User: Fold this.
Amino acid sequence: MGHRRRPSAYGELFRVTILLQLATLQTEAGDLMHARETIDEALVIAREISDVGSRASKLTEVAIAQAEAGDTKKAFAAAMVLTGYQRVQVLVHIASNTPD
Assistant:
């Protein structure tokens, strides 16, 4: 008792995906406060993914969701941790979601 079973890698990937889908719906509904909370929850899980490639992929998705929810500061910080194409993807989303 008292021990929480660690979810499988597949479970972690699935949870991040579902949370980011929920955050997208919240963003589209204009509920940015809850969208950002949901994205933060996804980020915590994504950071724990053991497979390096899967972790980088999910962290990219989290950063893109941050940009789309208007959380430019967090999205930019996340982009600086990423490399190559993943960094570019996030920076493009930040630029396309930043008001003129």
Notes: Residues 9-97 form a domain with the Serine Threonine Protein Phosphatase 5, Tetratricopeptide repeat fold (CATH 1.25.40). The chain has one domain: 9-97. Helices lie at 9-28, 32-47, 52-68, 72-81, 84-97.
